[in-house]
Amino acid sequence: MISGTPCSVTLAEPLFPRASDRMLLGAGFVLKWCLVFRSCPFVPGSERGSSLSMRAGPILWALLATAASTPLGSLSAQADVASSRAAGDSADIVRPGDLIRLKIWREPEMSGDVTVDEQGVATLPRIGALRVSGVRADSLKRLLVRSYAKYLRDPSVDITVLRRVTVLGAVRTPNVYHIEPTMTVADALALAGGATPEGKQDQVELRRRGDAVAVKLSRGVRLRDTPIRSGDELYVPQRSWFSRNAGLVLGGVGTAVSILYFAFR
């Protein structure tokens, strides 16, 4: 059995992107310095406490109060957003739930579709269980070429990583589909039979664990340029009742006007 070495993904976001988080961190350093050296110009009663503490002290406590007003989960939420952005920038990274389409030239018995389980492990023909979560597709391809070289002479290996995405809403055939990252939003909707006449094709939503992801999805955008991952949903909202029945409403109004006109002639 061959074990893969997951690649590390470097986030372009700072560790503490919010100003309140940076203030909280800075205030913590100041208080630690005061406790260690027992000297702080901002705290009355310390060795250096003086009139300066009366002026600067409120500033420190205001910083602490502002930082404390930030929800405790802000850092984890920001990290999740940063991770989503990194996922959009690294669309070829393999994740749990993905489908690996393996093709080995002239070796149909070794080719096929392999699902990555929740632990990030894929069971490949002849190789066996291999941890692939966090590995880029091109790195995985090179690893498979070296691995299959033990059984084949100059193996020609090709892999495609597909996302398992549910297409819901105003589409003709809502279901779970395996989508290639090179496909566009329109291509993904076409797998589900396309949007119904009542669907808002220009307002497709990306949902993750029931919550909408703040990303604009136009019909022509490629899925690899979005933070979409396996387990997500593409949801096509339905147009309002009035917009779907505008002709009926206008016809009814016209009929009512005609009746009133002839009734009061």
Can I get a quick summary?
This protein has helices at about 20-35, 50-70, 75-90, 135-150, 185-190, 240-245, 245-265, and strands at about 100-105, 110-115, 120-125, 130, 155-170, 175-180, 205-210, 210-215, 235. The chain is an alpha+beta fold and about 260 residues long. Helix 1 packs across helix 2 (about 50-70).
Walkthrough of the structure:
With 265 residues, the chain is of the alpha+beta class. The chain has three domains: 19-86, no CATH class; 99-160, 2-Layer Sandwich (wza like fold); 163-242, Outer membrane lipoprotein wza domain like (Outer membrane lipoprotein wza fold like, Roll), CATH 3.10.560.10. It has helices at residues 19-37, 51-68, 74-89, 137-148, 185-191, 241-244, 246-263; strands at 99-104, 112-115, 121-124, 128-131, 157-169, 175-179, 204-208, 211-217, 233-236. The strands form two sheets. Strands 1, 2, 5, 6, 7, 8 and 9 form a seven-stranded mixed beta sheet that branches. Strand 7 (204-208) and strand 8 form a beta hairpin. The radius of gyration is 29 Å and the shape is elongated.
Give the helices and strands, then pairings.
Elements: H1 19-37, H2 51-68, H3 74-89, E1 99-104, E2 112-115, E3 121-124, E4 128-131, H4 137-148, E5 157-169, E6 175-179, H5 185-191, E7 204-208, E8 211-217, E9 233-236, H6 241-244, H7 246-263
Helix pairs in contact: 1-2
What structural keywords apply?
disordered N terminus, 3 domains, 265 residues, alpha+beta, single chain, two-stranded antiparallel ribbon, 9 strands, Outer membrane lipoprotein wza fold like, wza like fold
